């Protein structure tokens, strides 16, 4: 009986994290209430505290889950085999797509949660989780770049900043031609950068 209860609790925790991760990315952490998350998973508000101590704890767990899923998705986006000579361009093409821009709730948490995390205290657990996700995104980009480690690291940070910034600004300018132009401009910038570095 205890094993079954533990599995049910784990399954419910996971469902709450998934729903919160989607809602937080879609609406922003402050705009989402605990009752809204619990309604999303078909549970009562009162049941929340059997799973998490606070909304802040849920935000950390949801960010962790979203970062992990985003990293897995990035790996699927990139064909690192011999059939694909330009894996970073593949990644940029998908990350900077209208589909990724428009699917905020399922998209990269680094672009979706940036403004929420910017308001967090420096020592917050959510900020630490988010920064870890940034480091993982930068490392994934760095692994696809040529050159020595120091240059690759610097280039990866610049490319990450350009990609994340483009998605944020593209979402902010939705409905205007600037939205698509922003994504295309950064794709072109990355392609030009790779061509000039000989990849």
Can you walk through the features of this model?
The protein has ten helices and no strands. It has helices at residues 2-27, 34-40, 55-77, 87-95, 98-102, 109-112, 114-118, 125-142, 149-172, 177-196. The N and C termini lie far apart (58 Å). The model has no long low-confidence stretch (mean pLDDT 91).
Task: Give the key terms.
Tetracycline Repressor, domain 2; mainly alpha
How do the helices and strands line up, and which of them pair or pack?
Blueprint: H1 2-27, H2 34-40, H3 55-77, H4 87-95, H5 98-102, H6 109-112, H7 114-118, H8 125-142, H9 149-172, H10 177-196
Helix pairs in contact: 1-3, 3-8, 4-10, 8-9, 9-10
Q: Might you state the CATH topology name?
A: Tetracycline Repressor, domain 2
Q: Based on the coordinates given, report the CATH architecture.
A: Orthogonal Bundle
- Mean pLDDT, to the nearest integer, reads 91
Number of domains: 1
Q: Compute the number of strand runs.
A: 0
How would the global form be characterised? Answer: elongated
Helix-strand string: HHHHHHHHHH
Keywords: DNA-binding, Transcription, Transcription regulation
Domain HTH tetR-type: 10-70
Pfam family, one: TetR_N
InterPro entries: Homeodomain-like_sf, HTH_TetR, Tet_transcr_reg_TetR-rel_C_sf
What's the short story on this structure?
The chain has helices at 2-27, 34-40, 55-77, 87-95, 98-102, 109-112, 114-118, 125-142, 149-172, 177-196. By secondary structure, it is mainly alpha-helical. Keywords: DNA-binding, Transcription, Transcription regulation.
């Amino acid at each position: 009986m205890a094993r079954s209860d533990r599995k049910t609790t784990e399954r419910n925790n996971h469902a709450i994290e998934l729903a919160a991760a989607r809602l937080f990315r879609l609406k922003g952490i402050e705009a989402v209430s605990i009752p809204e998350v619990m309604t999303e998973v078909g549970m009562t508000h009162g049941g929340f505290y059997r799973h998490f101590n606070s909304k802040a704890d849920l935000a950390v767990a949801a960010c962790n889950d979203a970062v992990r899923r985003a990293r897995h998705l990035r790996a699927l986006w990139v064909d690192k085999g011999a059939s694909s000579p330009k894996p970073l361009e593949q990644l940029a093409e998908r990350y900077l797509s209208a589909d990724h821009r428009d699917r905020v709730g399922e998209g990269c948490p680094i672009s979706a949660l940036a403004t929420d995390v910017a308001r967090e205290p420096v020592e917050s657990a959510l900020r630490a989780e988010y920064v870890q996700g940034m480091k993982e995104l930068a490392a994934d980009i760095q692994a696809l770049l040529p050159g020595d480690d120091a240059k690759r690291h610097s280039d990866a940070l610049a490319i990450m900043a350009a990609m994340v910034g483009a998605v944020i600004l593209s979402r902010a300018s939705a409905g205007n031609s600037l939205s698509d132009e922003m994504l295309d401009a950064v794709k072109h910038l990355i392609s030009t950068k790779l061509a000039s570095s000989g990849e």
